[in-house]
Amino acid sequence: MQPPQQNTYFAHSGKAEDGSDWQTLSEHLEATAARAATAGHLVGLPLCASTAARFHDFGKYDPAFQRRLSGDKTAVDHSTAGAHLLLGRAGPMPHAAQLLAYAILGHHAGLPDKTGSQAAMDPRIAGFRDPVPAAITAAQQPDLSPLLPELMAKMRISDESRRGFDASVAGRMIFSCLVDADYKDTEAFYDKLDGRSRDRDWPALSDILPDLRARFEAHMAGLPQGGDLNPLRRDILTHIRAGAALPPGLFTLTVPTGGGKTLASLGFALDHAAAYGHRRIIYAIPYTSIIDQTAQTFRSVFKDLGHVVLEHHSSIDEERPGQQGRDKARLAMEDWAAPLVVTTNVQLFESLFAARPSRARKLHNIAGSILILDEAQALPRELLMPVLRMLDTLATHYGCTIVLCTATQPAFDSAQLGPGGLPLAGRELAPDPQGLAKTLRRARIFDGGEMDDPALIEALRDIPQGMVIVNSRKHALELFRAAQAEGLDSLIHLTTRQYPAHRRRIIAGIRDRLDPENPRPCRLIATSLIEAGVDLDFPKGWRAEAGLDSIVQSAGRVNREGKRPVEDSTLTVFRAPDHPPHPQIRPLSEATRVTAAKFGHEKLLETEAINHWFNQVYWTRGIGRMGQPMVDAFTFAHSGTDFPYRSTAEAFRMIDSPMVPVIVAIEDKARSEVEKLAIPKIPSGGIARALQAYTVQVPEKARALLIANGHARFHATHLRGDQFCVLENRSLYRTEFGLHWEQADYLAADQSIV
After folding, report:
1. Cα separation of 647 and 206, whole Å?
2. Hey, how many other C-beta atoms are within 10 angstroms of the C-beta on 41?
3. Of 67, 14, 332, 17, whose CA–CA distance to 189 is shortest?
4. What DSSP character marks residue 22?
5. pLDDT category of residue 748 using cuts at 50, 70 and 90
6. Quick one: pLDDT at residue 296?
7. What is the dihedral of CA 586, 590, 591, 592, to 10 degrees?
8. Residue from 753, 668, 667, 651 nearest 706 by CA
9. Residues 369, 717: Cα–Cα separation, whole Å
10. Of 104, 152, 267, 476, whose Cβ has the fewest other Cβ atoms within 10 Å?
11. What angle do CA 168, 169, 171 make, to 5 degrees?
């Protein structure tokens, strides 16, 4: 079939052979430009965003691309022509044209580097031979002069240490506006063609904020009021909410475990948004193991208000490259249009540093948000400087308020870090953090010295209720099995080997056993997943040596509600001779030893000791070992930019060891969702979200062995590709300890693992 309607250029083909329902290129470019301008207004870059959109598909004027729409299989590069044209019109100040060129070149394949590989900007532009008819190219005379003032407003131009990074973030925002507009216009075209509509509409935070605040007030009024702890929590909440009147920007919120900081930070965010008009609230958590719990807490606060909370993490990766046409459609999990988003640090920061269009398209919706970073001390040391610089840029140029929320506030301020730190002086929201640490102290820390597994088992045998927290899933499983073999009763194992829905039931069972009105024996062996956000209250605990931040969190699970005498509520820190700390944990535990030697274990919960530990961990390393070169790599000079977008995205990995999902479809709900994979009309996104609760993250090599030996396989690959890996050998998943993937290379499908 020949291209229909000669002398008419098309962006997308339709169903009719005569082209009557095809989308013209001019329609797509103008519609995408209008959408991009709307998004661009949110970040203060409307002209930049709309100009990038107007030229992003300029290469589709290539006759070869038009033939491709009609069935020709020849590959066509349609992303370089627009960038080439704008750079050719740039004049002596190429900066604005270059930022738009990064976005245009990357709107399918991802943001490129400026130099380096053949996929980088400079080699692509240098080797480009324009196939667009000369008359069409000559007719394009874009005025780039109004773009530079927009960009200058997003940069601290006189600060050489910041202007390059500032400019690179402006480029990311332009890219986000472009790709989101492109996806949505393409989606709208195909939806109209198919007679389909999508519910992309979320309520604006400003419209529902009065109801959210009313629900929050009602929820807090319904909480228990008596005892010693609850009045203190109310005082903390009142003080923190009073801080909502302070000007937007960067804040710290330092409240010890048990002080109610999660709900207090939510109350602050609601009041602050009402005062300053923020567009959404984003709550970022370092651990996937507790994200569903936090989201459920917020849903219980805002019950009867419909869908206002979006939960987004990466248990199943929905953002597969290579999906085009109708499959470009992404819903709220991609653009973060919801008024309240609960996500992970990995999802948030890897998106902010992403090159992939599917991940970066949400960035313009982060602008104007309140970001609550829960457990801020868990931000990775190796990437700390780029993370802090990104937070600084979002607060300075994109209307974000950022709250570093933790019981153990890390030393991120400029007074300790110098120019790379954050301006946090006078921005603490909590009342007297040092005094709170003493008032809310509920446990004592002891040095247990060396304790092997038999010693830990005997320690548990001596008490009806207690917990042991170790540093690895492997150690937890070995200790649990050894305790079983010794006949220890009332044992419970909690680990990320178990899928989230299973863990929720286990945690509910633990709480039931720990109920002071009806206490029953409960001996828990767990990994560190219970240290943050899991509200358990044990009389005693043991913690394998680790960073002081982890030890403080563990102590927060001992006598959490303050109903037992402090002198009887102990956390014993021990060294496990057969399970030394992982190399990533070792320097943290060594710093703990240094701090304990200086202050003594009895004082490890005090603010002075915690500050000393953070100084040991962070600033004795030097900023060069905390990712500073990644910040300095983005340069903005008189001659132009040099931004390594793609190589930075590849290097910016918050989780060093790749973990991949395996779906455990044992329960009816999970099996039902897996069956939907074979139905073409059901989108992958909805299935993926439903299956997050039944997914275990395993090492990449382990999953490959499971697949190679028939223990797992990808389902519906003809529709979904290699996205949904399902456990086939259910005997590998046990109620007591979850998924056992070790030795999968020789376990037969019918063999038991015990």
Report:
1. 38
2. 15
3. 14
4. P
5. very low
6. 80
7. 100
8. 753
9. 38
10. 152
11. 65
Strand partners, 683: none
Q: Is residue 288 predicted with pLDDT exceeding 80?
A: no
Q: Enter the pTM of the model.
A: 0.86
What span, in angstroms and rounded, lies between the C-alpha atoms of 640 and 94? 6
Side chain identity, residue 494: L
Chain position carrying tokens 């609550």: 372
Structure tokens at 416: 């300790």
User: Distance (Å, rounded) from C-alpha 441 to C-alpha 443?
Assistant: 6
Separation of alpha carbons 556 and 191, rounded Å: 51
The per-residue b/e assignment along 560-585, b for 16 or more CB within 10 angstroms, e otherwise, is bbbebeeeebbbbbbbbeebebeeeb
State which H helix or E strand residue 556 sits in: none
Closest listed residue to residue 268, CA positions, set 433, 452, 446, 431: 431
Strand 712-714 relative to strand 725-727, pairing:
antiparallel
136-146 as b/e, with b when 16 or more CB fall inside 10 Å? Answer: ebeebeeebee
- For residue range 638-663, list pLDDT tens digits in order: 889 999 999 999 999 887 666 889 99
For position 724, what pLDDT does the model report? 94
Structure-block tokens of residue 70:
């009609």
Query: Whose CA is closest to 678, among 724, 745, 642, 638?
Result: 724
Q: How far apart are the C-alpha atoms of 107 and 462, rounded to whole Å?
A: 62
The answer to whether residue 674 scores a pLDDT higher than 80 is yes
CB 298 within 8 A of CB 342: yes
CA dist 396 → 64, 175, 248, 338, 449 (Å): 45, 19, 10, 23, 48
What torsion, rounded to 10 degrees, do the Cα atoms 534, 540, 543, 549 define?
50
Contact 332, 200 (CB under 8 A): yes
> Tens of pLDDT along 254-264?
998 778 888 99
Rounded to 10°, the helix 205-221/288-301 angle is: 90
d(CA 575, CA 387): 32
| Strands across the sheet containing 250-254 | 250-254, 401-406, 369-374, 280-285, 340-344, 309-312
Neighbours of 227 (CB within 10 A): 12
pLDDT at 417 exceeding the cut of 90: no
Q: Within a 10 A sphere around the Cβ of 537, how many other Cβ atoms?
A: 22
Query: Which residue carries 């820390």 as its tokens?
Result: 445
Paired tokens of 488 = 């220890």
Helix orientation angle between 25-43 and 46-55, rounded to the nearest 10 degrees: 160
Buried b (16+ CB within 10 A) or exposed e, 505-525: ebbeebeebbeeeeeeebbbb
Helices (H), strands (E): how many in the chain?
A: 32, 22
- Which domains does the chain carry? 10-194 (no CATH), 205-314+333-433 (3.40.50.300), 442-604 (3.40.50.300), 659-739 (no CATH)
Instruction: Report CA-CA distances (Å) from 514 to 297, 462, 496, 524.
Output: 20, 17, 22, 11
State how far the Cα of 200 lies from the Cα of 198, in Å rounded to an integer. Answer: 6
Are the CB atoms for 290 and 533 separated by under 8 Å? yes
Asked whether residue 738 carries a pLDDT value surpassing 50, the answer given is yes
Residues 56-82, buried b or exposed e (16+ Cβ, 10 A)? Answer: bbbbbbbeebbbbbeeeeeebbbbbbb
Q: For residues 110 and 144, give the distance between their C-alpha atoms in angstroms, rounded to a whole number.
A: 23
Token look-up 């990775």 returns 380
* CA separation for the pair 234, 179 (Å, rounded): 45
